[in-house]
Predict the 3D structure of the following.
Amino acid sequence: MDQRPIGFLDSGLGGISVLGEALRQLPEENYVYFGDTANAPYGDKDPETVCQLTHQAVDKLMALDCKAIVIACNTATSCAGGQLRQELHLPIIGLEPALKPASLLPGDGKILVLATSVTLALPKFQALMALYGKDALPVPCPGLMECVEQGHLDDDHVRGLLKTILSPWLDQPIKAVVLGCTHYPFLRKAIAPFFPADVPLIDGNAGAIRQLKRRLTEENLLNSAGSGSITFLSSSEDESTLRRMQKMLALCQ
Ligand code: DGL
């Protein structure tokens, strides 16, 4: 049994949607969550910069003696996940747009993959497209993570932006929508009405945490008798950021 915490990182609040899933599947683990709010967003920076920021965030978590790292950000995973796995000898779990499960769904129609411009442009996603992208339409969503950061989860502001982003794609049958950024599960209520009720909105959170559980089990790192403590950290000095993190976690429970 290993009581050390599991480290989570994201550019801001989005990875809390992944942390919420971790608390469901692994309620007895201890967690440290780092939001790089001072450097957000990652999704429109150049990949080299995102790679450096991700390394810095991982260094902070390693200094806190984390036993595993969840890169709870599709953008950071695309930019730095491969490199970090080579450099570090502990389980590193990344996020990628859940295109594979979406492509396995029965039925016709396109799969909209909503994600940051960086995620969609990098080789990791291109490889996923080559395998599972026959029906996929990649849709970059500039400005959408900022809505989550600013608390616009289901109001006119975010609905207006979603209308601009989604309208060009709505004149064809859609069989699924992939939420390929960890901020977007917080916008489910705002996104769902743009599609028929039977169109699933799929995120990669449950799959990533199943993978975390498998890796912890394999490496004998599980903590089956812990208290499930959570420590929030942010690169922003602003006290209100930590309060917002608590609030976002409450939305996941
Ligand atoms: N939450 C991050 C992701 O999953 C991106 C947000 C950002 O642009 O920083 O891609």
User: Anything to note?
Assistant: The chain has two domains: 6-95+205-251, 99-202. The chain has a mean pLDDT of 97.
